[in-house]
Design brief:
The complex is a heterodimer of chains A (201) and B (222). With 201 residues, chain A is α/β, with parallel strands linked by helices. Chain A is built from five helices and eight strands; from the N terminus they run E-E-E-H-E-E-H-H-H-E-H-E-E. Chain A has one domain: P-loop containing nucleotide triphosphate hydrolases (Rossmann fold, 3-Layer(aba) Sandwich), CATH 3.40.50.300. Chain A has a five-stranded parallel β-sheet, sandwiched between helices. In chain A, helix 2 packs parallel to helix 4. Chain B is mainly α and 222 residues long. Chain B has one domain. Chain B has ten helices and no strands. In chain B, helix 9 runs antiparallel to helix 10. The longest helix of chain B is centred in the middle third of the chain and has 30 residues. Classes of the chains: A alpha/beta (201), B mainly alpha (222). At the A-B interface, helix 2 of A face helix 1 and helix 5 of B.
């Protein structure tokens, strides 16, 4: 499986956010997207998932399921956690698992993978920012999809959770997945390509 | 179709939990109808004549009450982004959210209506007819309201815009709902004609509402 972007451009609010962005990511590979604030890291991820329409260029996925769009084979982990405070941890994860087509999975495994198994019955409103982020990450484990689009995935995580996230990402890559992550620093992957936005683009 | 059930269950759970709109809507309905006799005075004939109109107005306002957060809360916490990237057609997502909203705010009003009919001096037949008009008419209120909820999703204080946008659109539903209920309560006009038109309005809104709301959401998420 190979995700290729050629000369992608994004135009928002009357200005060019980025233009001429090209990259190729294959199975088992990771790409970190860096750049100053406002360089378009989040916009690039939102363009790939289909929430923004590219102003120019094209995006192609080879070797995926031809019946499905890129968005349907990708997980998007944005700045917002997409959790409902009045639902419990397990209900939040169960909803997204059901919505993304895996209704009858065992929720214990993904919750355990992010260290939240003991809090399954707690309403999500009581979670800390880092725990909310970990619950969002559990969604990626619960429903297997080959492409992970992560927008500053480690931003609110403590050191131990960052290590755990890096382990999960390595396992995903080892299983043939691919990862695109917007990040200011390292995300703990050794062999990641780097794409710098906003420099002589 | 598992996503459909997942979304329906989630929205209904949120509505009946603390801070959800279900209980608030039915309480608002009960309070508005209860205080009206105090304002109008103990004139039984007047109450009986105005009863259907009061119940219908209260039902209209109550179903608008929770509607402004229907998409806005999903937009604010990022859920709408994920929903838009899902496999589910947006029109169906909107329709399922509308259904969940109606089941949690419209249906309780209908269940509470006979109780409240007592306060307005309505007899059993009139109550039954009124419940029937509410049962048929309130889905139209919800599904018309979906359009306003989708348009006001990115606005702060969207609830005000929602009311201004949606209330004029509900005028036909109000007219035929109240006239059907009045025909059953007081006669002599026939019940069937306005009731049939009410059914037609609901069916039209069930089709137009989700498509218009989905188009508005797509436009706004760009």
């Amino acid at each position: 499986m190979r995700l290729t972007a050629s000369e992608l451009a994004c135009h928002r609010g009357g200005r060019d956010v980025f233009a001429g962005v090209s990259f190729t990511v294959a199975s088992g590979e990771a790409l970190t997207i860096s750049g100053r604030n406002g360089a378009g890291k989040s916009s690039l991820l939102r363009t790939i998932i289909g929430l923004l329409r590219p102003a120019a260029g094209r995006l192609a996925l080879e070797g995926g399921d031809p019946e499905l769009s890129v968005a349907e084979q990708a997980h998007y982990l944005g700045h917002q956690d997409a959790l409902k405070g009045s639902l419990s941890v397990a209900e939040n994860l169960g909803f997204w698992a059901g919505f993304f087509g895996a209704p009858s999975i065992d929720l214990h495994k993904p919750l355990d993978a992010v260290g939240l198994a003991g809090l399954a019955a707690l309403p999500a409103a009581y979670l800390s920012a880092g725990q909310r982020r970990r619950l969002s990450i559990a969604r990626l484990i619960a429903v297997p999809r080959p492409i992970w689009l992560l927008d500053e995935p480690a931003s609110t995580l403590d050191a131990a959770a960052q290590v755990r996230l890096a382990d999960l990402m390595r396992a995903h890559l080892a299983g043939g997945g691919l990862i695109l992550a917007a990040a200011h620093g390292s995300i703990g992957l050794d062999k990641a390509q780097e794409l710098r936005l906003g420099e002589a683009a | 179709m598992s996503w459909l059930a997942a979304l329906l269950v989630r929205d209904m759970r949120i509505a009946v939990r603390v801070g959800g709109g279900a209980l608030m809507g039915v309480l608002f309905f009960l309070v508005v109808v209860t205080i009206t006799p105090f304002a109008l005075g103990p004139d039984l004939a007047l109450l009986k004549r105005m009863g259907p109109a009061i119940l219908w107005l209260a039902a209209l306002l109550a179903s608008l009450l929770a509607l402004d957060r229907l998409f806005a809360s999903d937009h604010d916490d990022g859920s709408l982004d994920l929903i838009l990237t899902g496999r589910a057609p947006l029109e169906l997502v909107v329709a399922v959210k509308g259904l969940a909203h109606w089941l949690t705010t419209g249906l309780p009003l209908i269940v509470a209506a006979p109780l409240i009919g007592l306060l307005l001096n309505l007899d059993a037949t009139a109550d039954a007819a009124l419940m029937l008009t509410l049962l048929v008419g309130t889905p139209a209120l919800t599904f018309t309201g979906l359009i306003g909820a989708a348009i006001s999703v990115v606005l702060r204080r969207g609830g005000l815009l929602l009311a201004v946008l949606v209330l004029p659109l509900t005028v036909p539903v109000l007219i035929f709902g109240v006239s059907a209920a009045n025909a059953a309560v007081a006669g002599p006009a026939p019940f069937g004609a306005p009731f049939t038109i009410l059914c037609a309005l609901t069916l039209a809104s069930l089709v137009i509402g989700p498509f218009a709301a989905a188009a508005a959401l797509r436009q706004e998420m760009e």
